[in-house]
Amino acid sequence: MSEILQPPTWPRPQGFSNGIAARGRLVFIAGQIGWDEKSRIVSTDFSEQVRQALVNVLAVLAEAGGKPEHIARMTWYVTDKREYLAAYKSIGEVYRGLMGRHFPAMTAVEVAALIEHGAKVEIEATAVIPD
């Protein structure tokens, strides 16, 4: 079970938590991009790449017996801040479809490029699976 850490005088964040406290088995998930099991980028569409990257994160997590609600932290690396913001609504729909209403501590960072050609987003995660 995790605890959301929210200083009482701060405004409530939208779509993420300021902090999470949890106990259990730590699972560290390397950055996942929008490619399928054959290492093919699924689409040039930003939201579709987010969907596939999240599917990949959850597949790795499932190998440890984890579920979306066990993710305590995510870092998103995006190659274009404007494209990310323009797709924000559809990203939210994709996110909720896979993660539900679970909002871990998250950071989003714009980067010049990702290593894999055609990748627009890379998502890494840390999960805590209760003992």
Question: How is this structure best described in words?
Answer:
This protein has helices at 46-63, 81-86, 88-99, and strands at 2-5, 19-22, 25-33, 71-78, 105-110, 121-129. Strands 3-6-4-5 form a 4-stranded mixed β-sheet. The chain has a two-stranded antiparallel sheet with strand order 1-2. The chain is α+β, with helices and mostly antiparallel strands. The radius of gyration is 15 Å and the shape is globular. The chain has a single domain (24-129), classed as 2-Layer Sandwich (60s Ribosomal Protein L30, Chain: A).
Write the layout of secondary structure elements.
Blueprint lengths: L1 E4 L13 E4 L2 E9 L12 H18 L7 E8 L2 H6 L1 H12 L5 E6 L10 E9 L2
Parallel strand pairs: 4-5
Antiparallel strand pairs: 1-2, 3-6, 4-6
Keywords:
131 residues, alpha+beta, 60s Ribosomal Protein L30, Chain: A, four-stranded mixed β-sheet, two-stranded antiparallel sheet
Whole-number radius of gyration?
Answer: 15 Å
Strand order in the sheet with the most strands: 3-6-4-5
Structural class: alpha+beta
Low-confidence stretches: none
CATH superfamily: RutC-like
Order of helices and strands: EEEHEHHEE
Q: Beta-strand level of the residues, as a percent range?
A: 25-35%
Question: What shape does the CA trace take?
Answer: globular
CATH architecture: 2-Layer Sandwich
Cα distance, first to last residue? 9 Å
Q: CATH topology, anyone?
A: 60s Ribosomal Protein L30, Chain: A
Calculate the mean pLDDT score and round it.
95
Instruction: Output the CATH class name.
Output: Alpha Beta
The strand count comes to 6
Major sheet size, sense and barrel closure: 4 strands, mixed
Number of helices: 3
Number of domains: 1
> Helical residue percent?
25-40%
